[in-house]
Amino acid sequence: MRRATALILIVLFLAAPLAAAGSRSDARAQVEFGISVALQGLWKEAIYRWQKAVEIDPTYAAAYNNLAIAYEHEGMFDKAREAYEQASKLDPKNIYIKQNIEYFREINDRAKSEPPR
Amino acid sequence: MTARRASRLASLIVALGAAGCTTFYEIPLDTPTPAKLDVSAFQRVLIVGFVAGGTDEVDTNLETVRLLRSQLRTKSDLRVIEADAVPLAEVAASQRARSAEGQSEPAAGGQDGSTPKRIRDEKELEAYEPIFADVEYWKKLGEEYQNPLIVTGTIMFTPHSQSGFVQRDQEFYDSYGRRVVQPVRTYMERKGFILKPKFIFIDGRTGTTMYAETFREQVLYNPQQNTPALSSYFELMDRLIPSFLGTLSSQKIRGTRTLLK
Lengths: 117, 261
What we know:
The structure holds two protein chains of two kinds. By secondary structure, chain A is mainly alpha-helical. Chain A has helices at 2-39, 43-56, 61-73, 77-90, 95-112. In chain A, 83% of the residues lie in helices and 0% in strands. Chain B is of the alpha/beta class. In chain B, strand 5 and strand 6 form a beta hairpin. In chain B, the strands form two sheets. In chain B, strands 2, 3, 4, 5, 6 and 7 form a six-stranded mixed β-sheet that branches. Chains A and B meet through helix 1, helix 3 and helix 5 of A and strand 1, strand 6 and strand 8 of B.
């Protein structure tokens, strides 16, 4: 009995990363499809795909980064900021994410500066 | 031959491998920025004219009116009213003269209550500022043109010179005949212009100022470069136009972003 329990635990322990890898691979498929449609200018479809990707794998920094870019393209700056923050939290050392955030802030600050009197 | 073929194949494999490992895409992105001013209540825009000062070489009032009208015609949803540019400095001067006649004491700003005939610097320009607060004048003008959005303001376009060290790239050939580019610092006196416009947006229905924004741009040229004042004016205005248009309508700012896999 003890042996059986141990065996189940071992199987579960080994299966967990496999399941995670499976969800990452599904999310990656969504991200890749999102990129291909974004490159064709279909940003709404890209948003849908990248939203799916973060639903499948909420730890996927690249998906959040891409989602932020798409939100930015659509002028949804609050959502873009949230997505960028999430991407940065998940992968703080990623230079591409850092650079995207810098560019985003630059434009966002310019848009917000000097409000009408 | 076989070795060369093997080497080519190896390079191809490396190249394909590198391409396969590409996990990012740099893309151009046009980010929309919202307009600074809500002009949804207006269908028409009237670029009245500007109180202009500085150099005599360019009629900055007329040139600015023409330039802003042509930009708004193509880059804004507002219909541009075609009317003669108002010589606002003269209007302001006559207004001040009239108000000075009614006053026993000289008006503040000008020494004798009148506005200077030729505006040379910003201090002299200040004497004309009260015209923008003359609600009745703008309201009357608005009524004349069926209550449009009125664009006016001041423009100072002055010659400017500055001396100091300038860094530039100098190319030379080293002892091996190789081309080398090195930054060199040289002392130089450069001449150019400063453009300082203040754009004022007035509600033609009420005559009140909705928004005002001041810009400052300058350009300096090397002494051997002989650039006409009008070219400098357009060069500097080109830098300001996106910000001016961004006040009235949503603009797109081009940049790049990196998509990740």
